[in-house]
Amino acid sequence: MNWSKLPAALAGLPDFGGRIVIDANNPIEAPRFEPAELHGRTSSEAFAELVPGARVVKAFNHLPARLISDDPQAKGGHRVLFFAGDDVHAKAAVSGLIERLGFFGIDLGSLEGGGRLVQIPGGPLPVLNLVKLG
């Protein structure tokens, strides 16, 4: 979905009441992949404002969808998925989901710091297809 369509898609939803919401978005406008204007914030910080009361965890956004839908076991190990968030319990739940799906999760810290690392465009970690061996 184009970034600019998120506000309308999420408008009018009730308070999330502490539920965990996974932010798998990237601030781009397809098909030209132009970056959205975020005024110095990460996309997850902006996204969190659209889901009031949610505990937002950034995850499942740094790899192409085909690699996430493929077998998480690759080349003798488990494909790595990064995640970030400000709520330790929400991150633990998402980490557990990542592991149950067969991936190896790496916690990058806060939405601001870790979210910036995996954000497309601009982050240094997107599209890195890493595998945890062993």
**Nearest-integer average pLDDT:** 92
Order of helices and strands: HEEEHEHEEHEHE
Largest sheet: 6 strands, mixed
Model regions low in confidence, pLDDT < 50 over at least 5 residues: none
Question: Might you state the CATH topology name?
Answer: Rossmann fold
Strand content: 15-25%
The total tally of domains equals: 1
Number of helices: 5
Number of strands: 8
Note the gap between the termini. Answer: 36 Å
Shape descriptor reads: globular
Q: CATH homologous superfamily name?
A: NAD(P)-binding Rossmann-like Domain
Helix and strand content put the structural class at alpha/beta
Describe the structure.
It is a single chain. The protein is an alpha/beta fold. It has five helices and eight strands. Strands 1, 4, 5, 6, 7 and 8 form a six-stranded mixed beta sheet that branches. A two-stranded antiparallel ribbon has the order 2-3. β5 (73-74) and β6 (77-85) form a beta hairpin. The protein is globular, with a radius of gyration of 15 Å. The chain starts with 5 loop residues before the first helix and ends with a strand.
